[in-house]
Design a protein that fits this description.
Number of helices: 3
Structural class: alpha+beta
Bound molecules: the ligand C[C@H](O)[C@H](O)[C@H]1CNC2=NC(N)=NC(=O)C2=N1
Distance between the termini: 31 Å
GO molecular function: 4-alpha-hydroxytetrahydrobiopterin dehydratase activity
Number of strands: 5
Catalytic activity: (4aS,6R)-4a-hydroxy-L-erythro-5,6,7,8-tetrahydrobiopterin = (6R)-L-erythro-6,7-dihydrobiopterin + H2O
Order of helices and strands: HEEHEEHE
Strand content: 15-25%
Shape: globular
Family: Belongs to the pterin-4-alpha-carbinolamine dehydratase family.
GO biological process, one term: tetrahydrobiopterin biosynthetic process
CATH superfamily: Transcriptional coactivator/pterin dehydratase
InterPro entries: PCD_sf, Pterin_deHydtase
């Protein structure tokens, strides 16, 4: 279900570190490369369970997750925020730090 702007802003206020650009929310974490690989595997397990996938960009000391709902025409839905919350928990478990 598509979210209105005010619903998106309310959810973002509960998710410090996540920013919105257009119809994507994203967050980057500082983590060294191999730690990032382990974190991505963990995220991949969760997205398979959820059936909702993040776009992932791994650099040598940073991993970035971008989320939007492709099936909704690349707009933001509740599933995007559910996944963002799950990614924050996984990041904490992997000691990935905020930028
Ligand atoms: C059939 C399948 O569940 C859908 O194609 C799912 C898969 N993962 C997805 N992930 C994201 N981010 N957006 C989607 O619209 C989406 N659709």
């Amino acid at each position: 279900m598509l979210l209105r702007d005010d619903e998106i802003e309310a959810r973002l206020r509960e998710l410090p570190g996540w920013t919105r650009v257009g119809h994507e929310i994203s967050r980057s974490f500082r983590i060294r490369y191999h730690g990032g690989v382990a974190m991505i595997v963990h995220v991949a397990d969760v997205v398979r369970q959820m059936g909702h996938h993040a776009d992932i960009d791994l650099r040598w000391d940073l991993v970035r997750f971008g989320i939007t709902t492709h099936d909704a025409g690349n707009r933001l839905t509740e599933a995007d925020f559910d996944l963002a919350r799950r990614i924050d928990r996984i990041a904490a478990a992997h000691d990935a730090s905020a930028l």
